Amino acid sequence: MNKVTLLLLGFAVPALTFGCAPEPKTYADCVLQHVKPSMTKEAVELACQACRDKFPEPRPVERLLTRAELQQVEMNYDTREAPDSVKSSAADSEAWEYLHNGMKDTLRSVTYYDVVRVKQETGNQYRVRRYRIDLNLPPQSGTSVRVPLMPEDGLGLRLAWGVCSATTFGAMPADSLPTCDVPDDTLIARARRNEVLVQNAEALSRVR
C-alpha cells in the first residue's frame, strides 16, 4: 500500500463516518477531525502533513522596537572583530562597527545611518545615508558588522552615525509605541553640533 493510498484512506474514513462534520478552521481542528487511533503511524504523519499544508504555521511578525528597547541596542566603532586580511583589503571601502543587543529578544535588523560632510566648490554639503542590516542577533550578545563607505569618505568626514531604528519579532509591548525614523534635518543638525564640538576642541588644544 503506497503513501497516496494511505493518505486517501486516512481522510476517507473520517469523511464516511462524519459526513456532516464542519470544515476545520485550524490545524488542530484538522488533526482532530482526520487522525484516528486505528490509523498507522505513517498514515497519521501523512494526515498531519496534509493538515499543515492546509493550515501553514503563522510566520513571526516583525515589528519596530520601542524607544526603551532601542536604547539597549548599541553600535560603536570597533575593528577588533574584523579579520586582519579584511581590514587591510577593505580599509578604503568599508568600516567595522560593533553591534550589541542588550535586549531580551532576538534582534532581527537594524537601520544604520551616517552623516557625511562632502566638500564642494559651493561649500560643504551634508549627506544622510541609511541602510538596513539584516541579522538574527540573540539577546545579550554582539557581533561585528560591515558598514560601506562612499569614495568621498575620508578621515574626519563622517560626523554622526548610529542606529535610527531596529526590528524584532513578537507583539508590541503594552502601552508602548514603535520608534519612528529620524528625519534627515535632525540628523544633519546632530552632525553639525558634533562638528562644532570637534572644532572647539581643536582650537582649545592649539591655545594650550
UniProtKB/TrEMBL annotation:
The secretion signal range is 1-17
**Entry keyword set:** Signal
User: The organism sits in which domain of life?
Assistant: Bacteria
Official protein name in the record: Lipoprotein
Q: Which organism is it from?
A: Eiseniibacteriota bacterium
